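Re: that chain you flagged

S.,

Sorry for the slow reply, it's been a week of failed gels. I finally had a moment to sit down with the sequence you sent. For the record, here it is as I used it:
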Amino acid sequence: MKKILFAFFMLLIHFNVNASIYIKIDNDELIPYFNEDIKKYNYYTDKDNINIVVVNEDDDMIFGEGMHNLEEGINKFIVSSSKYGDYEINVYKNYIKKELEKGILTKLEIANYNINFNKDIYEYNVAVSNDSPLDINYEVNNPSSYVEIIGNGNFNKTKNIITINVDNINTYKINVYKTNLVSHNIYANDNEEVEMSYTKKEIAKLLIITISCSLVFSLYYILFIKKLF
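Prediction finished late last night. Pasting the structure tokens below so you have them in one place:
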């Protein structure tokens, strides 16, 4: 029975370590650091070619990895995963810093949401329970920059997309997931009611954790506690 418990723990460890994808270029990190939920990255080099390296699961089909030649300026590559979708990598060869500093948001906030903004991350997720437009505040690095926000409001689908285009150079994306209200009996203070909503992905994670904990406790009970009686 102890062997069964050990095998179960090893299975959980294997699942957590290998259930992901990781992308590097020439053994260098991307900007920002790779995360399977972040879909757009930058990389800077003066080389004539690069090697896109992908570490993935055995049953995940990958397209776009390997050696690639570079032209001067911006080179756009798409790495496609059958399990995790597409990842966009913009490789800048011999870039001019002055040009790259255009079209950048230095601040992006959404009232009542914490999105942990990073100027190098171009995609964010929020969950809403109504159709009201989001209160979006931003700052740019250049006062003369042109900013256009499209798709804010009338959220009539499960997944809605708000795009923020800066100088027609960089586009930031906010995925708005319209969800059903799960719980609303929580208060921020005596007079304000806070609505909480969860996406299907968050609910699935919660179920997995709950089931795993139940199995571990059951095995522990069978192996150790039951022997005491």
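What I noticed first: Helices lie at 2-18, 97-100, 200-225.

Talk soon,
D.
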